[in-house]
Design goal:
7-stranded mixed β-sheet
Length: 460
């Protein structure tokens, strides 16, 4: 038996688009009408390719995300995989039972009560009444619809609708779970419960297909991702690389995006590059083994890194609240504007624990320009107020004009990103944070610490 849950081969979906309703009738009757007049001896539609030559394989227990702008073809692809829409060309091989939440309340009859819809959906999925009986209380409690469970779902709010729909699909033992943006609906408390269920399912053998515009969720849950643009899969691979490319869709032409996607898995290496020698107190590791997540070394070369402890000695293992120095060396490949480094730290679940640009550090003197071949060393000092675990750290470099850097504090959080140009992002290495050396006392709970104070006022 195949260990693949889903195999998609050369999948395409083409729609016929008609300018007028009458043209659809003309197309249907073309064989007869063409005998009457030659003007009917032609197609009255134009072709629209919603999906073009999509290919991927997903093993049992793996997860994948589909990302892209609105209209890219994500929902169309999900519907074909779920079997609610037929493809024009290609094959979809599914090995397992699919539970799909494709849209708000999909599969619900608005005239039926919530209880009746639970049993109807369970029956459609192939479960016996006895099995649904055994799961009903759990579904009812999770959905939080209360007494409305015996009311027609047409009387439900949109939040209640999706709560019950998600509860049915997620709790009726899915082998393959398909979710299209459903986690963005509902209040924060229900969203938290949904995320807990997803994590539990991913810990088992459930295959997971997820569509979202929340890139953080994609990176957190999906090992791989497909970036769709105008119906084409322009990138298929690591979810972190895919999401970094997604953010460039508005800034680059389709041709540039495709070239960037090719470079993600086949980064250009600079064969004729001669690294400039400098006198440094830091012993740097070479960047040769570092993985380029986005961009290239066309304008800036990340030539080395070092991770040091408080005594400025090389280290990869730390204790909670230790001081660490993240040191990086970059070299300009051409004259350029201000080079701004960023440091990002991720845990094993791909959750971003920390991220900061150089200009967000206090008293950081960023040069306003670099000349060709000029070298810069950057040292970032952090107190590792992190939960004991293993972490991945990445470095990014952007460029910004001097006038914008001088006025960075006047820009809104949404507008300042339009002021810089991304150059390269590199996954550098890993480090670990351990428990205190004496005892098991933790100075905080959660993923990271926050500056804080506590005061008691005792009243007699």
């Amino acid at each position: 038996m195949s260990d693949f849950a889903i195999e998609v081969k050369n999948l395409s979906k083409v729609y016929n688009i008609y300018d007028k309703p009458m043209h659809r009738l003309y197309d249907m009757l073309a064989p007869l009408l063409s005998l009457v007049s030659k003007r009917f001896d032609r197609p009255f539609h134009r072709k629209f390719k919603a999906l073009s030559n999509i290919n991927f394989k997903l093993k049992k227990g793996q997860s994948i995300g589909f990302i892209g702008k609105n209209g890219a073809g994500k929902s169309t692809l999900l519907q074909i995989i779920a079997g609610t829409l037929s493809q024009t060309e290609g094959d979809v091989l599914v090995n397992g039972r699919i539970n799909a939440l494709l849209e708000l309340g999909s599969g619900f009859n608005p005239e039926f009560t919530g209880r009746e819809n639970v049993y109807m959906n369970g029956t459609i999925l192939g479960f016996s009444k006895e099995f649904i009986d055994s799961k009903f209380d759990e579904i009812y409690e999770f959905s939080e619809v209360g007494s409305f469970i015996d009311q027609p779902v047409k009387s439900y709010s949109s939040g209640m609708f999706v709560k019950l729909a998600f509860s049915v699909q997620a709790l009726l033992d899915p082998e393959i779970l398909i979710v299209d943006e459903a986690l963005s609906v509902g209040d924060i408390f229900f969203q938290r419960k949904c995320h807990q269920i997803i994590q539990k399912l991913l810990g088992g053998n459930t295959t997971f297909i997820f569509v979202s515009h929340d890139m953080g969720t994609i990176v957190k849950y999906c090992e791989k991702a497909i970036l769709l643009n105008n119906g084409e899969a322009i990138y298929y691979g690591d979810s972190l690389k895919a999401t970094s490319l997604y953010y460039k869709l508005d800034r680059m032409s389709p041709e540039e995006i495709k070239l960037e996607a090719l470079e993600l898995d086949n980064p250009k290496r600079i064969s004729s590059f001669v690294e400039k020698k400098i006198n440094s107190k830091v012993s740097y590791h070479s960047s040769d083994g570092c993985d380029i997540l986005s961009g290239s070394y066309d304008r800036i070369f990340f030539s080395g890194y070092a991770l040091l402890n408080e005594e400025k000695e090389p280290a990869t293992s730390f204790t909670i609240q230790d001081t660490a120095y993240f040191c990086f060396r970059i070299q300009a490949m051409q004259d350029m504007d201000a080079p701004i480094l960023s440091l990002s730290i991720f845990n094993k679940q791909n959750v971003t624990i920390f991220g900061r640009y150089a200009y967000q550090f206090k008293e950081c003197d960023i040069p306003y320009e670099l000349k060709e071949n000029q070298v810069v060393e950057v040292e970032l000092k952090l107190q590792l107020d992190l939960h004991p675990d293993e972490y991945i750290f990445c470095v990014g470099v952007i460029s910004m004009k001097e006038v914008d850097l001088r006025n960075i504090e006047s820009f809104s959080v949404h507008s300042y990103q339009d002021k810089f140009e991304p150059l390269v992002t590199v996954q550098v290495g890993t480090f670990s944070v351990g428990f205190p050396k004496t005892g098991l006392y933790l100075p905080f709970n959660g993923l990271s610490d926050l500056p804080s104070d506590c005061k008691y006022i005792l009243h007699e």
